[in-house]
Amino acid sequence: MNPEIALLHNYLIVGAVLFGLGAVGFLSRRNMIVMFLCAEMMLQGVSLSLVAFSRFHNDFGGQMLVVFIIAVAACEAAIALALVLMLVRRVGKLDVAVWQSLREDNQPEFEEEKVPEEPSEKPEAWPSLARAGLTAEVSPEKTDYRRKP
Amino acid sequence: MDTIKILLILIPALPLAATLLTAALGERVLRGRSHWPTVLAIGLSCLASLALVYQVHSGIDQARRETELAETHGEETASVGYEKVYSLWTWAAVEGAYQRPNETAWYDFHVDVTLRADPLTAIMLAMVTFVSLVVAIYSIGYMHDDPGYWRFFSYIPLFVFSMTMLVSVSNFVLLYVFWEAVGLCSYLLIGFWFQKPEAAAAGKKAFLVNRIGDFGFALGLFLLWTNYGTLNFHDVKVVEETVTVAGEEVTQTSVVPESAAVAEDAWVVGQQPGVLGQTILKSQRQLDRGEELAEGAPRYATGALATAICLLLMLGACGKSAQFPLHVWLPDAMEGPTPVSALIHAATMVTAGVYMVTRCLPLFVASEYAPQVVAAIGGFTALLAALIALTQTDLKRILAYSTISQLGYMFLGLGTVTLLSAAGAAAGMFHLFTHAFFKALLFLGAGSVMHAMGGVIDVRRFGGLRRLMPVTHWTFLFGCLALAGIFPFAGFWSKDLILVAVGEQAHQQAFGEQTRLLYSLLYIAGLFTAFLTAFYTFRAYLLTFHGEEQIPPEAGHHAHESPKSMTVPLVILAICSLGVGAFFELTGSFERFLEDAPSVAYLTAGAEEPVVEAAGTETGEHGVSHLGVAILSTVIALSGVALALLLYLGKRQWLQRLTQAMDAAMLYRLSHGKFFFDEIYMVFVVWPLRVIAWLSYLVDRVLIDGLVNLCGILPKWIGAALRPLQNGMLQFYALAMVLGLLVLIGTLLR
Q1: A10 CB burial (10 A radius; 0-12, 13-18, 19+)
Q2: pLDDT in tens, B180-211
Q3: CB contact under 8 A, A110 and B727
Q4: Is A108 inside a domain boundary?
Q5: Which chain A positions have a beta carbon within 8 Å of B724's beta carbon?
Q6: Which helix H or strand E contains A143, and what residues bound it?
Q7: Which among A87, A100, A112, A113 is the top mutation candidate for probing chain B, defined by the most B β-carbons within 10 Å of its own β-carbon?
Q8: Which domain holds residue A9?
Q9: Which residues on chain A are in Cβ contact (under 8 Å) with B727?
Q10: What pLDDT is stored for residue B613 in this prediction?
Q11: To 5 degrees, how large is the angle CA B735–CA B740–CA B741?
């Protein structure tokens, strides 16, 4: 394989991985700031691909574009974070599921399912050894579990 | 303008004006004085009608003189009968409306509003307006204090307008329009007390039964139109022109042909001569004489086509004139106020069928079987209704059945008309004329009784009223004598003429064996009906005015003779029912006058001339003599009266036995149940129709409505299915976008 193409491949793979991670994060996380960061990550994945192609084709258009993207992303970050701040001020939560104004009328509201509680068990009491030379004092409570009821 | 034209316009216009005036002002302004416009308008109409009769009469005389003069000069100018036709305005004109099969030319459909004056119209107008006037005056007393007083007096002139137009228009379409208009008035007046469920139901029944007849009538008109290319009666009309004579402008009137084609005997398609017009009658008469006709000259259809037209027209007449099998509406129509029963359902509207058949007689004669069917229906109905009338207990219903029976007589008379004799037509019309007077009298008498008895009309619940109500009693007796056909009352003369005409046909050599048998049977039926008529008339009279004095509690303490406004019309009509028959019959003026109506003139002219060679026309020796029939029918009528006197006068012990004997033979129940026509129609007509209506309702509700509703519901369902996608969750939308993108990429890369 042409080493140029192999190099391009590596860059593209990293770009795609960045984009994929961003997409998955955007779709799965509900924290608005994290979602915003994930969106930025997707943007950077694309930017990386652009730079790589630009280098491969020896055309600086792509790199120009990336410079613009970085500038726009900076502005975007300022606006987006300000928006997030205002939304958080309204309800005091960062959760994006609180905002459902795009819903059709008469549709049931999104209700968060409660996460089932972790089954809490008594911490198992492990037998502890007495120091050497001393008679082991075994409290019946601690050894009871061995007995069959 | 021409005097006749002014009169012809005034006669219907005055009642129409009265209707509009009363309808507009009756409720607020006129109230108790609502009768004034009506009585005034109908009174003037009546005078105008009498003037019209005079004008037509003198017109006929003049025409006769001119004809004689022309004949001395050897000119052939004679027209068939006397008619004056005036076109007022064009009502409908469609050019090239219809193309006949096997012809290339297109026919125009052209309806002018045309009024005609001829003896038939003049007689009908005089009769209608006179009876209407008398009834309107009577209604002042009868309808007194009714909450619908003004409404009543706006319907009555509306009816008079429609009826006068019905008899004076000169076109089948207009005839149909006013045929329906009188039906509407009848409906409105039967259901005048619409709060009563029976009255509302009776109005509906009358309207629906009439629809059946009118449907036949309409089909008849379609057939006429497709065959003759016109629906006009006339093909000549009177026009006015201004000419300058010796320096002065003078208005002259002259009779001109309706269209150029008629004038020049050039038969251009699209301009057809009237169905009952001069041209077709003249050429048809030539044909009857056995002469050759010019190529394309108009003539009447013959064979099955003619019979079909006539039978369909007869169906219309059956509906309007309550003949079997459409007679069931008339007895129920008695739910209306009694003056209405007298005016519309006895004297005038129900005779419209008779008028129409008389007008169309040339068409009927052209058919081989139509006159016999008319006669058979008439004779059968007369007998049937008389049998039912025997046992009815409602005074007005007895009279209603007798009306049906007498109308049957009229059709029986008309049915005897052939090319050889028009005596039956004159007889039928004469009976119509006399019947109007004495039947209106009887109904108004019954109304007077009903008025005094507090609305009770069941003859079993009152009796012996002759001392209480002397005027009503005597006038009612006059009406009964006239209806029973006792010499010298009106019914005697006209009924005799019909029986003579039927008797002659029974011996008519020109007919085949079967036809003679038919007329013989009808003759016997007519005589038997005369007997029954005398019996049930006097039964009603004796039950009401004789026997023990009995007054129902509804009458209260004020059972009394009716006021002047009601008794004076009774007296007038009583004098008429005594006088008109003898006067017109003995002077012979009615028949001579009627003979000049074009439809009748065509037939009488045929009767005078030797017509068909093969047919033996001598009927004198074999036929029945006038005097013989007169004596026979008088004896029969008297025996009917005698039987009624025997049964109902005194202690009535024979009555019980006879009733029981009849009851045992089911005859009494059959008659009392009106031969169960209502029930039969209920099972065979009403129920099947209800089932069909119910099925149609289901189809409409389930299928049609279902399809329409489905169109509305389907988008709703689709929307409901898609709506949950819009759940407002940002990440769901993002996921949808990603998936969409994946699908897009997948498709592009494939």
Answers
A1: exposed
A2: 999 999 999 998 998 889 999 999 999 999 99
A3: yes
A4: no
A5: 104, 107
A6: helix A140-143
A7: A100
A8: 3-99
A9: 100, 103-104, 107, 110
A10: 37
A11: 100
Q: Is A103 on the interface with B (CB under 8 A)?
A: yes
> Across the interface, which of A96, A99, A107 has its CB nearest the CB of B726?
A107
Is B375 in contact with B412 (CB distance < 8 Å)? yes
From B148's Cα to the closest Cα of chain A, the distance in A is 58
How far is Cα B290 from Cα B309, in angstroms, rounded to an integer?
24
Residue A77 lies in a domain: yes
- How many contacts (CB atoms, under 8 Å) link A and B? 38
- Rounded to 5, what percent of chain A is helix, strand, coil? 60, 0, 35
Pick from B728, B735, B738: CB nearest A103: B728
**Is A141 within the bounds of a domain?**
no
A102 with B733: Cβ contact below 8 A: yes
E strand or H helix at B112, and its extent? strand B106-117
CA distances from A24 to A27, A81, B280, B737, B739 (A): 5, 21, 101, 13, 12
Mean pLDDT for chain B overall = 85
| The dihedral sign for the CA sequence B312, B314, B317, B321 | negative
Of A26, A97, A106, the CB nearest to B729: A97
In 3D space, the residue among B441, B422, B565, B456 whose CA is nearest the CA of residue B491 turns out to be B441
Kindly give, in sequence order, each residue whose CB lies less than 8 Å from that of residue B495, ignoring residues fewer than 6 positions away: B409, B431, B485, B530, B633
Per the structure, how many domains does chain A have?
1
> Is the Cβ–Cβ distance between B316 and B179 less than 8 Å?
yes
Strands B84-99 and B248-257: unpaired
Specify burial of residue A98 (Cβ count, 10 A radius: 0-12, 13-18, 19+): middle
Answer yes or no: is A148 within a domain.
no
| Distant-in-sequence, close-in-space partners of B632: CB < 8 Å, separation ≥ 6 | B527
CATH number at residue A31: 1.10.287.3510
Q: A27 and B731 in contact by Cβ < 8 A? A: yes
Top mean pLDDT of B231-240, B278-287, B720-729 is at B720-729
Which residue in B has a C-alpha nearest to residue A25's C-alpha?
B731
Q: What residue has token string 């005596």?
A: B423
CA–CA dist B278, A92 (Å, integer): 106
Question: In chain B, how long is the greatest CA-to-CA distance?
Answer: 118
Q: CA–CA separation, B213 vs B204, rounded Å?
A: 15
Under 8 Å between Cβ of B494 and B428: no
Dump pLDDT digits (tens) for B674-732.
Answer: 888 888 888 998 899 999 999 999 999 999 999 999 999 999 999 888 888 888 888 88
Report CA-CA distances (Å) from B605 to B109, B153, B273, B601, B748: 32, 44, 21, 6, 101
